[in-house]
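PROTOCOL LOG
Step 1. Enter all chains and additional molecules of the complex.
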Amino acid sequence: MKHNKPNTGEATMDTRRIANRLAAFGLASSLALVTGTALAIPFIQCPGDDLKSDGVTPGHDAVPEPTSPNYDPSVKCMHLIAGDGYVRMADGREVYIFGFGDVTGVDEDKVMSQGMLHATFPAPRIVLEEGQKFYLTLTNVGMVMRPDLFDPHTVHFHGFPNASTIFDGVPDNSISINMGSSLTYFYNIVEPGTYMYHCHVEAAEHMQMGMLGNLYVHAAQDRLPDGTTFANGFVHHTGNHYAYDDQDGSTRYDVEYPIQIGSFDVEFHDADENVQPLPFADMKDDYGMLNGRGYPDTVDPNPVTPPTKNGNFPSQVEDSRIVAKQGQRILLRISNLNVTRFYTLRTLGLDMEVIGQGARQLRGPDPDGNGPLLGKNVYYKTNSVTLGGGEAIDVIIDTTGVPPGKYFLYTTNLHYLSNNQEDYGGMMTEIIIN
Amino acid sequence: MNIKRDIERIRRRLAVTLMLLGMIASPAGVWARIQGVTGVQGPKGPVFHLTAGSFHITTPDGHSLLMWGYGIAGSKTQYPGPTLIVNEGDQVTVTLTNQGLPMPVSILFPGQHRVVATGGSTGQITRESTGPNDTVTYTFVASHPGTYTYYSGTRPGLQVEMGLVGALIVRPKAGADHAYNDPATRFDREYLLLLTEVDQAVHTQVELGHLDQINNTLTHSTLWFINGRNGPDTLYDDNVGWMPHQPYGALVRMHPGEKVLMRVIGGGRELHPFHTHGNNFTLIARDGRELSSGPGQGIDLAVSDYTLQVQPGATYDAIFEWTGEKLGWDIYGTTAGGRPHTCVDNDGDGFDETTHEYCPDHEKPIPVILPENQQLTFGPFYSGSPFLGVLGNLPPGEGGMNLYGGMYFMWHSHSERELTNDNIYPGGMLTMLIVEHPSVPIP
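Step 2. Run joint prediction.
Step 3. Record the structure below.
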């Protein structure tokens, strides 16, 4: 049965519990150090990364140096930790999470200490360019608050085309990385579009707990020479951006925003924090969010006030406020990574044109399969879109002639317009047209 | 933790499955067909004599559930009902006799036009069978190829929950290796993926005879199924003896370069986002109608996606392909790595003519060093090698369920709470695709 636990009077107990668990984890770490020191330093694989962040000391920080003999400008590196942490919901409640954190640029010998209990939500945004070779190192720093768990973690690059099993991140079918160790994933980035990523280990648990993030790929068409003319007469100019390699300019945008739908069942999070049986069938989310925050935190450009339970680490740095100048075309990369239900998002006073889904342009097949003929664009205009978990769509909002002002993007599953018991919140953000 | 122990138990069951899968010799075929029934030939066309009855199934979490289901007269009733396979233009006759259900039962055929019901008894939506001596007959012309569903039109909120749902496939004039008459709908293999869910409490109430106390608006699912089985039972072969009323497996197997037709059905009352690991699919039809802007236009409105929004009662046809194209490394391994093989692209399409290997990546080594074994947790379906068709060394007790070094990709509901069997993870609405090495025979 669902009941809402008051969050009062527990602070002292929580603090003591954290202290105990840190001690236990510290013990586990020192044991690991005794049995094999190699485990304590993440193994970062990033071609051209030969030096630490000071640019002098040999070592690794997942940032390539242009001076390196192995430097390749098409290489993109990133280093994530997987572990646990806390976030603060829009009603002030602190909630335990599992999550990823960005340690790109952090020296290898400092990653473990900086990564522990520093998971963020949503997971660090991953932005890639078509044509890049993406080296993603994942270091499992363990879960400080759950020293009884020895869970490995993975990255599942959701939607990656023609995937290989080894880098697909499904633990049943592949490998996953243990506590204190690192695994580097390799992805050859060939298809632009909106993807997402998450941990796939015990997915119903790890995903409800927050191991979810935005991931998208910019189209190579952005980098065509100035003045390139397409068959339909559209002329590309340097600085133009396109959601897809559309060859007709129809997916051109001026500003882009990823909007990831999510929701938490805090009862589940509390059960996990307190080592209780986990209710899957009874999972019922009570906080609706966009990019890891409920309204009005969604429109706050600053990090959310850090939770005390993670040592005041800013764990929610992404907002979802959408800002454009009148006349601009806004690309929204909408994805859904909740694990319980479908959600509908609506724009008020603005039309959305759906131009892509599942990291593909919404276009029918090439009529003869050989080009240069293009398939039919099957775009459609709407002001509401419905997505289940694991779905993504791309919409363009053309603000030509739109009066400047404040517009809203919000869920029409109206009971998710709240932060648990607090009304006037939840899955909503603002579109500001200047 | 109990959950860990349960997973271990499930893994052991899976090990047995995969061993059996490997040992059972299957008849050779040009391409894999969905298992189903084609009826008996009557004077006008195929005739299916169906019954409706009750039976029990055992779910992977250990529950025994009372189900209701359709069956071929003289055979077992089953969940889901028998997949009826007919040809475009057939005059189809389906008879239904209620063999012991405590209320009338019927069949609806969404997507079929001018269905005529005769005999039986009057019902709310269509004519019904009230008992063993009351047979209803439905006839229609299967005028349009495609994937359809059929289910009870009598108290459907309860009866579909209880299991009275099945698939109907109408094969086109273009041939049984086409989904529709358009040449772009040709496929090499086809698989049925019928998604349903169950609220155990309803089944308990039915078993106790408390039919009047059931409130369909309060249903709360605890079990999720593909083709009438929960994961990992979905991975067992068709017709295994220990699931006598659940004859249909859901394991998908293919070779690189093949076209797999997914016939997906929203068989229950919930929406499910069905995610295909491995690659996008191309959606070519919905509810038995090609995604086409008009006659002569082909499937010009077909679109690609990686998660299919499966809506209640809707059916979908999608074509899935996988080649490993542009991974940036040789998925078959390299000569230097002890995996010499050729890649011959005569026609300039980028792929080997027989294996469909992507030749521009030939002999490119995998760009990263994989961690040492003690730093890793291994999945039961991991071959021990990143390369296709290769079985690598794994620590004792690890892996072992991957017989041919295939690449396993999970196909599952992306509402991950549905990947459970009464709160036990993993299970529920999940199955696997295995991309097998080109040399591995697939029945």
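Step 4. Note key features.
Confidence is low (pLDDT under 50) at residues 1-5, 15-31 of chain B.
Chain B touches chain A through 70 residues (CB under 8 Å).
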